[in-house]
Design goal:
The protein is of the alpha+beta class and 491 residues long. It has 2 domains: 87-363, Beta-lactamase (3-Layer(aba) Sandwich), CATH 3.40.710.10; 373-490, Tetratricopeptide repeat domain (Serine Threonine Protein Phosphatase 5, Tetratricopeptide repeat, Alpha Horseshoe), CATH 1.25.40. Helices cover 46% and strands 14% of the residues. The strands form 5 sheets. The chain has a 6-stranded antiparallel β-sheet, sandwiched between helices. Strands 5-9-6 form a 3-stranded antiparallel β-sheet. α12 (375-386) packs across α14 (410-422) and α17 (460-473) runs antiparallel to α18 (478-490). The model is unreliable at 1-5 and 12-30 (pLDDT under 50).
Length: 491
């Protein structure tokens, strides 16, 4: 029997409706599977003391997962949530870069303009060589103030004026000719924030609010000035071998434009979304801002092509990390698919980059590494209770019999060594760094660390020997060159 055209049309539309309905269910189930897997993965990290904070994941521009883990305040056991405020450290730099680009688009700043054009009192010999572009791309050659001896142990806590900061900490002799090399540099972004203030006649935080936060509707983001009460702000902590401790006081204005902002995972999603349209900046100037220069660094962003190990397929990623006192942060934008991963942590240094890679694999239905326990806590307890010799024996036994359970990469022993230096157990740190070199003899960082420990122990000859070996393994290791020269001057 012939079916009429009307019945054909009716059957066709019923099929379309059912297809869309069940496709929606399938997609929702598929999305739920991903979120469950992400939750399982992060929960395992939390159990291993490898994450404590808030997470947000977006897929195709839509939030599919957001959750807090652990505590925003350990004293009162107040949980982290998606709207908990965290200090975001160097994620601040991308906001400074945006302000500079907005002013460049308005014709108020020249990217090739000289530093001395905007900060008139800056030393002329250097200021007339360094451009705004150099500051944005970490290629200025000006020494980074956070690398200066004693800065973190002393100067971070003092309420210096901005002018004193510029003169005392940001005006050192060039360590290379501007534009010829890359070296991550906090001084550059402090100076850029000052330039924003000089050009506009307004404070950095006023520009931030008016030009970025208000247009992007970011109501839970701003700058911390140690004065205003910030509701739902997390406290920062460090992990030490004896447990967590409160992070030390930091006068936040000393981190102007460098790491003085706070935000939430939800607000950083709004920031991500604002970067896809011209609400904040035109396409022309965004192309300039997002074009990488040396070492894949653009203006306030790292730009990468990540390749899967088992294929030629690659993913375009815009990302940046942040670390200051007890906080660290990561924004990870998979821009081809409008995927986003935001991680904010308040218990010191955590490998957020690796966490982002694992979540990326989950989003793309690929295998990811199951989190392993850190060897740091286990060996640290043994050192404190039984001594370094037993800890070294324990390391070898665990590596032999529990390799699948613990993380034995070279970074873990290096971290343990620095934990020991932090509690003034220099001799124990030396033994751990030596163990790291025995296990990973081609790792230049291990020799750097041992050199530093020997220097603290007063063994200058051994310090030079290890820095020299580090330099042999990595001829671009500027830190080793500087330390060798410094030790020679001490003789």
């Amino acid at each position: 029997m012939k079916i009429s055209d009307n019945r054909k049309d009716f059957t066709f539309w019923i099929f379309i409706v059912l297809f869309c309905f069940f496709s929606g269910i399938i997609n929702e189930i598929y999305s739920q599977d991903k979120t469950l897997e992400i939750d399982r993965y992060i929960s395992k990290l939390v159990d291993n003391q490898q994450f404590n904070g808030s997470v947000l994941v977006a897929e195709d521009g839509d939030v599919i997962f957001k959750k807090g883990y652990g505590y925003a305040n350990l004293d009162w056991e107040i949980p982290n949530t998606p709207d908990t405020k965290f200090i975001i450290g160097s994620l601040t730099k991308q906001f400074v870069a945006m302000l500079i680009m907005q002013l460049a688009e308005e014709g108020k700043i020249e990217l090739q303009g000289k530093l001395s054009d905007y900060i008139s009192e800056y030393r002329k010999d250097t200021g007339e060589k360094v451009t705004v572009h150099h500051l944005l791309t970490h290629t200025s050659g000006i020494p980074s103030y956070t690398d200066l001896p004693g800065f973190w142990s002393d100067s971070t806590q003092k309420s210096y004026s901005k002018n004193i900061m510029i003169k005392k900490f940001h005006s050192g002799d060039l360590i290379f000719e501007p534009g010829t090399a890359y070296r991550y540099n906090n001084t550059g972004y402090f100076l850029l924030a000052i330039i924003v203030e000089r050009v506009t006649g307004k404070l950095f935080e006023e520009n931030l609010q008016e030009r970025i936060l208000n247009p992007a509707n970011m109501k839970n983001t701003g700058v911390d000035r140690n004065i205003k009460i910030l509701k739902k702000k997390a406290s920062g902590y460090y992990y030490r071998l004896s447990g967590y401790i409160n992070d030390p006081y930091l006068y936040m204005l000393n981190a102007l434009g460098v790491g003085d902002m706070y935000s939430t995972v939800e607000d950083l999603y709004l920031w991500d979304q604002a970067l896809y349209d011209d609400k904040l900046l035109s396409e022309k100037y965004k192309r300039i801002m997002f074009t990488p220069f040396l070492k894949n660094y653009a203006y306030g962003w790292g730009i990468y092509n990540l390749k899967y190990a088992d294929s030629s397929e690659s993913l375009r990623v815009m990302a940046h990390s942040g670390s200051i006192q007890g906080f660290n942060a990561q924004i990870f934008r998979l821009i081809d698919d409008e995927h986003l991963i935001v991680l904010l942590n308040n218990t010191g240094q955590v490998n957020l980059w690796e966490i982002c890679l694992s979540i990326t694999n989950i989003l793309n239905d690929r295998m990811y590494a199951v989190p392993k326990k850190s060897i740091v806590q286990t060996l640290g307890k043994t050192i404190l209770t039984s001594g370094i010799k037993y800890a070294v024996i324990q390391y070898h036994l665990l590596k032999l019999y529990k390799f699948a359970e613990y993380d034995f990469n070279e970074k873990t022993l290096n971290e343990l060594g620095y934990q020991l230096l932090g509690i003034n157990r220099i001799g124990d740190a030396v033994e751990i760094f030596k163990l790291n070199i025995e296990e990973y003899p081609q790792d230049y960082i291990a020799y750097n660390s041992l050199g530093g420990a020997y220097l603290l122990a007063g063994k200058k000859r051994l310090a030079i020997k290890n820095y020299t070996k580090s330099l042999e393994l990595n001829p671009d290791n500027i830190k080793a060159v500087e330390m060798i020269e410094k030790i020679k001057q001490l003789k």
